[in-house]
Amino acid sequence: MSRALTFFLFVLLLFGACKPASDTQREKPLIVATTSILADGIQNLVGEKAEVIALMPAGVDPHLYKASVRDLDLLTSADLVVYHGLYLEGKMTEIFEKLTLRQNLIDVSDGIPQTDLIRSGPEAHSVDPHIWFDINLWSKALTHASKELIQWKPEWKSIIESNSEVYFQKLKNLEQETRTKVNELKSKNQVLVTAHDAFAYFGKAYGLEVYSLQGLSTLSEPGLRDLTELIQIIQEHQVKAIFAEQTISPKALKAVANGAAEKNQLVQLAGPLYTDSLDAPDTPAGTYLGMFSTNLNIIYQNLLP
After folding, report:
1. What is the pLDDT of residue 121?
2. Is the predicted pLDDT of residue 62 greater than 90, yes or no?
């Protein structure tokens, strides 16, 4: 455990009995969600009833995020903390365990059946956390969140149920559009090649083959073997485009594209796709629906023959 994290947990324990200002002293309750993706989902459920803040700014990679003094202030002053779970916020797992002693928390992954999860190994941290790329699974996660929110604030029941009905219909419409476009790509024998393994749920849900340069986490650097294998896949499938991601340097994928070109397989470096974070607010990819739709259109337009 790092010295900073040790100090962070010590402070949490030291001030555990002294919870800061409650929602009775605020105009609205404060909900802190770990990522911008999650904050957007929770905001759609609660509407104007609460202030929802993302702990991690847009464009930040949650796999690499480290707790700061700002985190301590937000987490300990929040009336409710909502997080993804499934080790997405890997460096913050111990903090959440300590917060359960004194804080209202919701782990949205509790709404996902274990049989729906994708694993790369038997270890707990080997589960794939990128559930939001299967719209149906993301709906399950938010359904669980809505139930927990109602349990936390029973007086919000009618507004949360009304907001959920409207928002989930938008998710269903987006899923239908996704299936239509992916089915067209599949009919053209296209596959998806990305920077890291964030689209496994997308591939499983919509039947598209997905390959990546890095694994579930962005902590490890790809090696020469990883590059060579990906170049072979690009040759085998006559891939037209490979996709960079907004939270990852495109340097390694550029090396893949150059390596493919040396073997007479020209491939475009497209994107970036939005994976572990939304774009800045008030941009096309600044909401979950906008982010997913933006990714879908980038993939669709660059892979169509």
Report:
1. 65
2. no
Q: Residue 167 pLDDT more than 70? A: yes
- What DSSP string describes the chain? --HHHHHHHHHHHHTTT-----GGGSSS-EEEESSHHHHHHHHHHHGGGSEEEESSPTT--TTT----HHHHHHHHH-SEEEE--TTTTGGGHHHHHHHTTTS-EEEGGGGS-GGG--BSSSSGGGB---GGGSHHHHHHHHHHHHHHHHHH-GGGHHHHHHHHHHHHHHHHHHHHHHHHHHHHHHHTT--EEEEES--HHHHHHHT--EEEEE-SSSSSPP-HHHHHHHHHHHHHHT--EEEEETTS-SHHHHHHHHHHHHTT---EEEEEEP-SS--STTSTTSSHHHHHHHHHHHHHHHH--
Question: Tokens for 282?
Answer: 């008030």
pTM (predicted TM-score): 0.88
How much is the mean pLDDT over the chain?
A: 88
d(CA 272, CA 244): 5
